[in-house]
Amino acid sequence: MYKQTEVVAYKVIENDLKDKICNGSIKPGERLPSMVDLCQEYNTSSTTVKKSLDSLKQAGYIYAKKRVGYFVSDIESDHFKIKF
C-alpha cells in the first residue's frame, strides 16, 4: 500500500533557509528578511514563519536581536564545528 508522506509547512521554510545559510546565500551576521517579507515569500502565516525561525534558532543557525530581527549565526560557532 502507498504511504503518503506529510509535508509540514514550517519544515519547508526551515529547510529552505537552512540551505541558504549553508550554501552561503545568506552570510554569517547577515539579517534575514523581515517576518512580513518571509510570510509573503512563502505565502503563509506569521505563526508558521515564527515556528521555522524558532527551530533554526534552537539549532544554532540564527539568533535574534530584540526589536531588530533575526541574523545568521557566525560560521565559527560550535554548531558548525565538526566534533570527533
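^ that was protein a. below is b, sequence first then the C-alpha cells
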Amino acid sequence: MLTPDAALERLDHLLSRAKAAGADAADAVYFGEASTGIGVRLGALEEIGRSEGEEIGLRLFLGDRSAQVSVSDLSPQALAEAVERAVAMAREATPDAYAGLAPADRLASGPFPDFDLHDPAVEALGADRLKAMALEAEDAARAVPGITSSEGGSASAGLSVSALATSHGFRGAARGTSVSASAVVIAGDGDGRQRDYDWHSARHLADLESLSDIGRRAGERTVERLNPARAPTGTMPVLFDSRVSASLIGHLLGAITGAAIARKTSFLIDKADAQLFDSAIQVHDDPHRLRGLRSRAFDGEGLPTAPRRIIADGRLT
C-alpha cells in the first residue's frame, strides 16, 4: 500500500498521461486498505483473515464527453493502458453539458487537518492481540445468565490511505486506522431460541469501548428477546433502538442528495424549509470531529467540507 505522498505522486503521473493523451480535464483517486480480522467461537479460534488491496480510478473529459475507469494494477504500463481505454470510451460517450470538474475557485486548499484519524497502536495490533480481544468480548457475552450458546466473537484492525488529485490543481490525501470488536450469542433452547449482538468501532484503540461491556450488552440484548409478549392494541409512543434510528437518518440523507432531487426520485422534493419533525429534533453533520469515523477535510471532488445543520428545529434546511 502506498503512503499518502507516494499515492499523490502516482496520481500526478496518471493525470499527466491523461493530458498528454488529449484530455481537456481529469481527476484521479487512489484508495488502499489493509485489514486483519480474527473470529472465535466457544472459546476457540475459528477464523483468521488478512486482506490488502489498492485501486486507482481515473475520470477524464474530452469536451463535454467523459469516461471513468479503475485499475488495481498500479504499474506504469497498466496506468498507460487505463488512460488509452478511458480516452477511447470518452470519444464514444454521450455528450453531457453539465459534466465536469468542480470549479477551481471552490476547491479546498491545504494544508489539511488530519483530525487525528491515525493511531499507531491500531496499526501495530497483531493476530494474538486481536484474538485475545475477541475472546474477551465473547466470554463476557457467554457469562450473562440465560445465554446457552455462541455464534462467536470477533476483532479486527485496519489501515487505509486515500488520495485525490485533479488536473486543475487540487491535491489532497489522508490516512486513517480503524478497530472494532463484536459478539453474537444465543439464549434459550429449541424453538424459543433467540439471537442478538453488539459491536463497536473506533479510529483509536483507546476509544474502543470496553470489550467486556460489548459482550455484556450482546448477552443482555439476547436474553431480553426471550418469551416475547403480545402488545395490546392502541395508540402509544414508539421508541426506536439506536441501531434502528441510525437507519432512519440514512433514509433522510438519501432523500436529500443532489442526485435524488435532480432525478425526482425523492419523497422530499419541494420540501426545503418544511417542518418534517418536532421542533426539538436537530440533525447536525460534522465531518470535522476529531477521531470521527467519517471525518474528512474535503469531499470526492476536492470541495471543502464543513459542519452543517441538516435539520434545524425540525425543519429541513
